[in-house]
Design brief:
mainly beta; 1 helix; 14-stranded antiparallel beta barrel; Porin
Length: 392
């Protein structure tokens, strides 16, 4: 295997078929593979997920497809400034949620509206790498991140045992920014396309102010309260911590024009909680979002270069989920997946990649206020990706 053949094949590991429907709010997988490409390199891509997530509430009502389609863009540039110093900038949207419960008679909707969820993040990662030898790369840098959310809870599922109801609760968190950091190292033997990297991302602490409103009603006489409690509108602080994570990436040439590769990821979702001020009221005491276990995921695959212009990949993936029961924001518990990808290189400097992935989503029990409310079973999703790259 010559260096030029392997260099072209290495790009296969960046195929956008890595689009995920992962545990917790995890989305992009936070890859830095673009930064580890040889020489100067730039890419831009978009990934789309089309989930089908249905279930049945505990009153026996069917819950229609609540999983919204969504897309997230990505971009990266890497410059080999000197023989020993490289610089990089990576944009992605690492965490998010999209859900729209239908007005279908289930306990997640009223007669007019269903529960709605939108959570968005943006990440910009700056990297500087030091290569003391051809084989080693040590890198680190700052991470800038924004978070915004708009969530409305509707329906009987959000009733409390005492007779109170959170149906009608709404929270809007305007986009705000916070900072973290990233560090890692990579080892490679270019002649055989061997590469291994370990990348750590810190947690990022967000302090935002939210607009909360609610139709909350506490029955008179409960714990000595003579009147209903008016908690209709609150300007309140919201604290959230996006989790720390570790990515391990491996690849190696295994035959002429053929690569094997793997990604292993850990995300610290254990004890992740978002509890805005209104929901923290002692007569409510309910989290907006919480997860009970860490996420572990793995993707393994084979890439093959058929000729100077065409290459392809196949992948198998697994995600453990982040604990069950789960939040109603995304009622699935991990997945298994298979993926196919292709790459067309019209020139030695440019390429276009496309990928598709099919997910078998794990069954899950959705809960609110610590009480199970519905079962979601036998659900699936389709992921699509498109990426363009340029070596300069």
């Amino acid at each position: 295997m010559t260096f030029n053949v392997i260099r072209t094949a290495i790009l296969l590991t960046t195929l956008p078929s890595s689009v995920v429907f992962a545990a917790g709010l995890d989305r992009s997988g936070q890859s830095i593979s673009a930064f580890l490409q040889p020489g100067n390199y730039a890419e831009a891509g978009i990934s789309v997920l089309d989930p089908t997530v249905k279930g049945q509430d505990y009153d026996g009502n069917p819950v229609g497809d609540m999983g919204d389609d969504y897309y997230f863009p990505s971009a990266a540039i890497k410059v080999q400034a000197t023989d020993k110093i490289s610089l990089g900038l990576i944009y992605d949207q690492p965490f998010g949620a999209d859900a729209s419960y239908q007005v279908d008679g289930s306990n997640f909707a009223t007669a007019n509206e269903g529960t709605q969820v939108k959570v968005r993040t943006n990440n910009l990662t700056a990297l500087i790498g030091y290569q003391p030898t051809e084989n080693w790369n040590i890198y680190a840098g700052p991470v800038w991140q924004t978070v915004e959310a708009d969530i409305s809870l509707k329906g009987k599922a959000y009733s409390k045992p005492i007779g109170a109801t959170l149906s009608g609760y709404h929270i809007n968190v305007d986009q705000e920014e916070a900072y973290g950091w990233i560090a890692g190292f990579a080892y490679q033997i270019p002649e055989i396309a061997l590469k291994a990297s370990v990348t750590y991302r810190s947690e990022i602490k967000h302090k935002a102010f939210a607009e909360e409103s609610s139709n909350l009603y506490i029955p008179t006489g409960y714990v000595g309260n003579a009147l209903p409690i008016d908690l209709r509108e609150v300007n309140s602080p919201v604290n959230a911590i996006t989790p720390q994570s570790v990515n391990i990436d491996l690849q190696s040439g295994i035959a002429t024009n053929t690569l094997a590769f793997a990604n292993i990821r850990w995300v610290h979702w254990d004890n992740f909680v978002v509890s805005p001020s209104l929901l923290s009221h002692p007569l409510i005491n309910q989290n907006l979002i919480d997860y009970s276990k860490d996420q572990y995921s793995a993707t393994v695959g084979i890439g093959h270069k058929f000729n100077p212009k065409w290459s392809g990949t196949t992948t198998i993936g697994y995600d453990s989920g982040a604990g069950n029961p789960v939040t109603t924001l995304g009622p699935t518990e991990g997945y298994w997946s298979v993926g196919l990808g292709g790459q067309y290189s019209p020139t030695e400097q440019t390429f276009i990649q496309a990928g598709v992935k099919y997910f078998w989503l794990g069954d899950a029990t959705a809960q609110t206020g610590g009480a199970p409310k519905a079962e979601f079973e036998d659900n699936t999703a389709m992921g699509y990706g498109l990426k363009m790259g340029y070596k300069f």
